[in-house]
Amino acid sequence: MNFPVSRQAAAVSLALALISSTAIAEVADTVVVTATRTPQLAADLIADTTVINAEEIARSGAGSVADILQRQRGIEITRNGPAGTATSVYVRGANANQIVVLLDGVRIASGTTGTASWNAIPLGAIDRIEIVYGPLSTLYGADAIGGVIQIFTRKGEGAPVVTASVGAGSNATLQGDAGIFGSSGGPNAINYAFGAGYEESDGFSSTRPGASGYNADEDGYRRRNANGRVSMALAPGHEIGAQFLASRTYSQYDASGSGSYDVHSDTDLNTAAVFMTNQLLPNWRSTVQYARSEDKSGSFSNATASGASQIDTEQNEFSWQNNVAIGQDTLQLLFNHRKEEVASMRKTRITNSYAAAYSAKRANHLFDVSARQDRSVYGSQNTGAAGYGYEFGNGLRATASIGTSFRAPTFNELYFPGYGLATNKPEKGRNREVGLRYDGNGYNLDATYFHNRLTDMIVSSTPCPDGVNRSCAYNVNEATLEGFSLAGSTRLMDVNLRASLDWQDPRDDTTGRQLARRAKKHANFAADYVMGQLKSGAELTVSGDRFDNAPNTSRLGGYGLLNLYTTYQFTPDWSLLLRVNNVADKNYEVARNYGTSGRTWFASLRYGIR
After folding, report:
1. Which secondary-structure segment (H or E) carries 586?
2. Which residue positions does the secretion signal occupy (predicted)?
């Protein structure tokens, strides 16, 4: 790994200093669902995880989910202009289509690109976000090479609560959302949660001078959404429910030859699910779910039919999960059936999956092991994973894990006319990592080294293996995703401090070049101060330089973004947020010739607690 030795030593020294400066352990009380597909205390997890809570989301003042993710360790983003335009999220250097994105347990991704429509996910509907780093194909199947990101909306419980917020900011940005959450109480309680929101912004030019199709006009977006969840307790340990989310985004962009035409795209993201949970025996809990997600995207670059395209993809998924307690251990058995369809191609793909996982805790030892088989048109894919953790006491824990994963070829890579090859095979990954964690006496530390070897990587290149002089997708490359991640937090007097640093080497082993649009170094720092009802803070995101293309001939410079915010809680129910992003008005690029936001401000008034 090509990291400077002095910096590695400095990172290790910092870790040891933090550990040696504390003595009393504190057990982490955060509950994480995604890492094991069942609620579990973070202190009992082997997997490397991050949780973004409701408070951080509320004060983000962000225009999209991607803006929040960019401030987390191990994550980088690229975007083709303002918040409404196409966005890619990279986890630990993995491609944007090498992560699984879930919305309340429902997969969301386009069948043609393999990526989630991040610009269509409504920020106001989110209660928390869980990020699990590393391969999770044994739990979630195809595409979970770099990690899994799960977004949770609000669930109802307790007395009815009403929330609402309105906000305004730079670029004529307007936001508003409202929700009601609660429970009827009693033995057959009905829990409910409903919300709706609207956002709009004039934005800024999606491209810069010199770009193909450059237009100096503003490229804005409008997004409206609604979501809901209802569940009913049939008896103790038995529950049925349903949930949905519908979001529609209109976003403008620049395109060649459009003239004065309003170039734009319409994106619809719809999810729905029905579920039932039953405590069949004191030690056996069964959950079944049927879910459907739709990703519909239309692009309109001129007034003629040749300038319009519509891509509609959908996924229907049935899962049956069984958690069986064996003493203090847990055995998990899973069956999953997924049907993917792309209407424009008239193509369908069905995947049947069978998985088993076993986790155990013995004194200071943590163990987990899992295996899965996915059967589809590309054949049977077998994946496995194993992890071990040891509690040294006083809040110090060491972990180690290995795991295999794969990414299924997208419909474009298989069937798109003149580009896809039906013979393309899944990409495969083999990961190993070790970690050191500490929670105690007001300090938190997480240090992780990972090495993920990828084979059969699909690339777009000319000529095709079939001998035709055209660009197409085919298996040829190998890659290595290697890195070291360090994160820590503490409190000094009345100031909360957080920091994360990532050194990584995402490289194409076939060519020896750095993977496009991924920096070797990036970091995040944050500090906030509480004085009575006033909370003020600063955030700094720093990224090193990287290349915009695979041949590494177009370099993108590094950048640093400073954000400031303050929140005033003037009553238990009412709060006011003021936020300024990119305070230094930094001019930078995350994709060549695409615009990024300069200095902006945002203010919001909120009623109720998220």
Report:
1. none
2. 1-25
DSSP-assigned states of every residue in 106-138:
EE---TTT-S--GGGS-GGGEEEEEEEES--HH
pLDDT recorded at residue 9: 38
Which pLDDT score is estimated for 609?
67
Give, rounded to a whole angstrom, the gap between the first and last alpha carbons of the chain. Answer: 43
Q: How far is 357 from 387, CA to CA, in rounded Å?
A: 11
**Do 218 and 171 touch, CB atoms closer than 8 A?**
yes
Taking only the tens place, the pLDDT of each residue in 302-324 is 877 667 889 999 999 999 999 99
Query: Once rounded to an integer, what is the mean pLDDT over residues 153-157?
Result: 90
Mean pLDDT of 383-399: 95
**Domains of the chain by start residue, with CATH:** 5-165+229-245+257-514 (2.40.170)
pLDDT band at 102 (very low <50, low <70, confident <90, very high): very high
Buried b (16+ CB within 10 A) or exposed e, 397-414: bebebebbbbbbbbbbbb
Q: Are 454 and 479 in contact (CB under 8 A)?
A: yes
CA distance 212 to 541: 29
Q: Are 90 and 77 in contact (CB under 8 A)?
A: yes
What element of type H or E holds 285? Answer: strand 284-300
Q: Tens digits of per-residue pLDDT, 534-546?
A: 999 999 999 999 9
Rounded CA-CA distance 297/299 in Å is: 7
Contact 452, 99 (CB under 8 A): no
Between residues 303 and 430, the one the model is more confident about? 430
CA 352 to chain centre: 25
Q: Please check whether residue 131 is in contact with residue 90, taking contact to mean a CB–CB distance below 8 angstroms.
A: no
Nearest to 511 by CA among 478, 462, 475, 483: 478
CA gap 387, 382 in Å, rounded: 18
pLDDT per position as a tens digit, 40-73: 988 889 999 999 988 888 777 676 888 899 999 9
Cβ atoms of residues 395 and 438 within 8 Å: yes
Residue 552: which region, alpha, beta or left (left: phi > 0; alpha: psi -120 to 50)?
left
Count CA atoms closer than 13 A to 168's CA, side-chain side. 1
Instruction: State how far the Cα of 596 lies from the Cα of 587, in Å rounded to an integer.
Output: 8
Look at residue 144 in the predicted model and tell me its pLDDT: 96
Q: Is 363 left (phi over 0), alpha (psi -120 to 50) or beta?
A: left
pLDDT above 50 (res 519): yes
Question: Would you call 241 helix, strand, or coil by DSSP?
Answer: strand
**In the prediction, which pLDDT does 85 show?**
85
What does DSSP assign to residue 2?
Answer: -
Report residue 366 as tokens: 């943590």
Nearest one of 157, 155, 174, 158 to 166, comparing CA atoms: 174
182, pLDDT greater than 70: yes
Q: Which residue in 288, 272, 73 sits closest to 153, CA to CA?
A: 272
Taking the C-alpha atoms of 427, 141, 52 and 161 in order, what is their torsion angle to the nearest 10 degrees? 150
Q: Check: CB of residue 310 under 8 Å from CB of residue 297.
A: yes
> Greatest CA separation found in the chain?
71
Residue % of the chain over a pLDDT of 70: 94
E strands along 53-110, which residues?
A: 75-79, 87-91, 99-103, 106-107
> What are the strands of the beta sheet with 48-52, ordered from one edge?
48-52, 126-133, 147-153, 99-103, 106-107
